[in-house]
Amino acid sequence: MPICTSCTHPTPFLYTVYQSAHNTRLEQCTACHAFADPYVEHDTLTLLLDLILLKRDVYRHLLFNRGLGARKAGRVGLVNPVTNAQEAQHGTNSSTNQANARRWYLIVRLGAALITVDACALSPGWFVLPDGGNRNWESESLECFVRILAGCVVETVAFHAGIMIACYTILTLLAWNHRSRRKTTADVQVSGIRREFRYSHVPLTLLYSSLTKLFLLFLLSIWRPAPSAAPVGIDATSIHPIAVSILRVFDEDQLDREWIVRNVLGGMAAGFGLRVVLDCHPVFTTAIILVGWAIKTAVAGLVSGWVGLVTHGDYDTPGEIWLAYSIP
């Protein structure tokens, strides 16, 4: 059943479709009396921009309401009873399994596209143009890209697997705590997100959250900041040595913007998405992200010797290149 994007209260219908083309009416939530889901009228570009901006309601729309909640009005203005019956059967096991299968299919398609984009964003910094006429440069570059793509696939699967394991553990503990509270207190209200949650929502949420990271990496790839002509000096005599060491972290030579976007901002976006879909305290989502990072780091260390086959920048060994961008 769809949910209200404002208060997560379950609602049978999101909008009503009339006989004339493009004539719809948004339904109000019975709990908060706001529009149940305003995003049903928005186009794909608006959804994409709101995903990049990490808006909570667009996550709820895409995860729980996409393609659901419509009812048709007859010629006399009454709701078609056949449509009502079909919507009422939405919660059955067969329709739930079909929705889950479609969700996994979307995960595979979206994951393949985003992993390819991630590999393309990571590859340009690894390729070095040959000084002389190296005929094997194209084949070597293609092999390098394939290895980077394979490394991104393995790393993404490991990160998602760690997140899934942590989510299962946290949700099991929360469910046990919920049952124990119900025995001692009155019936505890369960949100619509908890009722409609499936574990397939977790990887889909992570993929949606990665759009913010990929968008910022795209901006860095086409608009790299120019280094300052005269570096700003730091007077170490008037500033505490600890403050000097902290300020030097933000120097152009020390600051790796791609690493910050890929790991720090990417982790924050993933944590925000999990906070929406799991409907739990931010402490739990932070712990889940840390578990995913730990497993991702372990796997990155295993595949770094196979993926990093070129030297780049200040990194001498092949494994250092991959680990520099993979380990949070």
From TrEMBL:
Keywords associated with the record: Endoplasmic reticulum, Golgi apparatus, Lipid metabolism, Lipid transport, Membrane, Sphingolipid metabolism, Transmembrane, Transmembrane helix, Transport
Keyword set includes Nucleotide-binding: no
Any single GO CC term annotated in Swiss-Prot or TrEMBL for this entry: cortical endoplasmic reticulum
Localization per record: Endoplasmic reticulum membrane; Golgi apparatus membrane
Keyword ATP-binding part of the UniProt annotation: no
GO biological process, one term: sphingolipid metabolic process
Bilayer topology term: Multi-pass membrane protein
Transmembrane segments annotated in the record for this chain: 104-128, 148-176, 204-223, 259-278, 284-309
Function: Mediator of sterol homeostasis involved in sterol uptake, trafficking and distribution into membranes.
PANTHER family: ARV1 (PTHR14467), PROTEIN ARV1 (PTHR14467:SF0)
Family as reported in the entry's similarity comment: Belongs to the ARV1 family.
UniProt-recorded name of the protein: Protein ARV
